[in-house]
Structure formats: structure tokens, C-alpha cells
Amino acid sequence: MASLAKVLVLVGVGVALARSERERRIATRARRTPTRSSLHSDEPRAAGLRRVILGQLDRAIELLEDPRGDPDGETVHEVRKIVKRLRAIVRLLRGELGAQRFAREDAALRDCGRRLSGARDAEVMVDTLDALCKEHPKLTRAKAASRRGDPRGGGGGGGVRALRAQLVAEREAASASEDAALRAAVVADLRAIRARAAAWKLRERPQRPTRLLAPGLEHLYGEGRRRMRRARRRGGVEAMHAWRKRVKALRYAAQTLDRGGEWRETKSARRLRSVARRADRIGDLLGEEHDLALLARVVRRRAKLFAGDRKQQKRLLRAIARRRKRLRKRALREGECLYERKPKAFVRGVRKAL
């Protein structure tokens, strides 16, 4: 009996060791397997970019076809981020693809993102208003009693609450409108893009390896630099938003080019990762600034909600304006650091990572 117990113990230990070894091998393979969003340290550039592009398209299709049920807001948000990353990669390859093919694929990806934007944009409006009210609690603080008892929003905070109720209703309606037919149509477009991307002829250049990516990166960086200067001069909503698009594209491009492994130790690779982090911060600042600008438009257009308390509407708009001013100031300060170099000098500084 004692011998049997010993055998069972030994078998149990052996099974545990085998399972541990199997899990270790799986984890090791996972570390060695190239991710679907960035280049791998030991793969050719053209092959790596093709793998990333196809992998990202596959991931977007998987998310939209998730059999567990309707994609929620976060799933749609993730798909839209994938589309933005793909557009950044296409911009890196615009010289290789040619003007006509670049315009076609960029427009196709842009349309996919726009068709999924309804519910996400409505959700962002609610989140932006909630964040502003959290920063300024007086905006929703009710008075002891409403002088007029106006159901449209008087009585201190009522206008803001009525506005939020409308935005929530619009968010739910937009979410409901993103039905299976719409997602199926987007999936069909993504599959068509994937079929074309699989046939792209991306040339490896062993003698001039950076030739594939350097021109696109230089153009992308230079475009962002010009848009930053325009945004600084004009300061308008559209100018800021146009700059933000190129900042986000630079961030996704830099993240895609991060090869990991031994490349992490090179100066060029560290500089490229620093660019990605700074661009990420600026993109967040400009994104919040843009959301607040859109919220201000909504507040002005729905003045009837504040008929019982016009001062509340003015307080809300002042709070938005002050917050936007701080965000623009911070973004431009960070932008001066990100775009301090001329495009050619910038590319020279990261050339070894390309």
C-alpha cells in the first residue's frame, strides 16, 4: 500500500513537471513569435510589414465576427485603432505602393473606420461631459428649488442633466444602429483589402534596406511638423484635429517599426520608442481637446435645454474653453520637442532602426 502511494506521488510529480515544461515551451514560443502589430527583430522588412498588415486585418475581422455576441463599444474601438494603425503603415509604404494604389487603400480603410464611428463618437460625448462635470461639480449641483420649475432644464444643473440624458439616448440609438448587416459589410471590405494587400509587391533591398521605409517616414514626420505649425498659427478646431491625425499616424508607425529583441539596445531604436511615447501623449491631449470642441458645439446648438438657466450654459462653455486652452498649450509644448528636428535629420537619427 505504501509502495502504491509512493508510485502515485511520483506520477503526480512527473505530470506536474511535464505540465510545467509544456507551459514553459508555450511561453517561450509566444515570446519568439512575432506579434501582429510590430516587426520582428530578425525578419526582412518587406516580409515583416506584409505579415503585420495581414495580421492586423485578420485581427479586425476576428473581432467583428466574434461568435460570442454583438461587439461592444470597446471591441469597435479596438477595430478602429487597428484601422488607424493600418493607415499609418500604408502611409509608410506610399512610395512603394504608388500614388494610385495608396489613395485607393487609404480611402478604403478610412471608410471602414467611419462606418464604425457612430456609437463610439456618441459614447465619447457622454464620457467627455462626465469628465468635465467631475472636474467642476458645481455644473450639476441642483438648487433648493427651481424658480420656474422649467422641465427643460432649469433649477441648477438641470440643463446639464438634460443634455446628458439626450447624449445617452443618442449613444444607445447609435449602438443599436450598428447591426450585424453593417458589421458584415465592413468585414467584406476588410477581406477585400486583405486580398489586395496579400498581392502587393514589396521589394526587399539588401543593399539599401532603409529605402523601403525612410521616404514614407520622412514624409509622415514632415507632414505632422507642418500641421503643428499651422495649428499653432490658427488654433482652430480643424487645424488641431488635422495635426492630431498625423501625430497618431507617427505614433502607430513608430510602434510598428519597434523590432524588440536586440534592437532595443540601439540608440535609434530607443529614439523611435521615445517618439512613440511622446506622440501618444500628444495624441491623447489633442483627442481630448477635439472632444471638448465637439461638446461645445453641441451645447450651443441645444440652447433650449438651458432655457431656465442661461448662466449655467455659459459656465459650461467657459469650463470647456479653459480646459481646451490648457490642453492646446500642453500639446504644442510637447509638439515642439517631438518636431524639433527637420524631417531628413529625424530620419537620419532613427535610420538604423529602419
What level of helicity do the residues show?
Answer: over 70%
Q: What does the average pLDDT come to?
A: 83
- Order of helical and strand elements: HHHHHHHHHHHHH
Question: Termini, distance in Å?
Answer: 67 Å
Oligomer: single chain
Number of DSSP helical runs = 13
Indicate the structural class. Answer: mainly alpha
Unreliable stretches: 4-34, 143-156
Shape: globular
What portion of the residues fall into strands of 2 or more residues?
A: under 5%
CA gyration radius, whole angstroms: 26 Å
Task: Give the gist of this structure.
With about 350 residues, the protein is mainly α.
Characteristics of this structure?
354 residues; mainly alpha; 74% helix; globular
Explain what this protein looks like in three dimensions:
The protein is mostly helical and 354 residues long. The chain is built from 13 helices and no strands. The termini are far apart. Mean pLDDT is 83; it is low at 4-34 and 143-156.
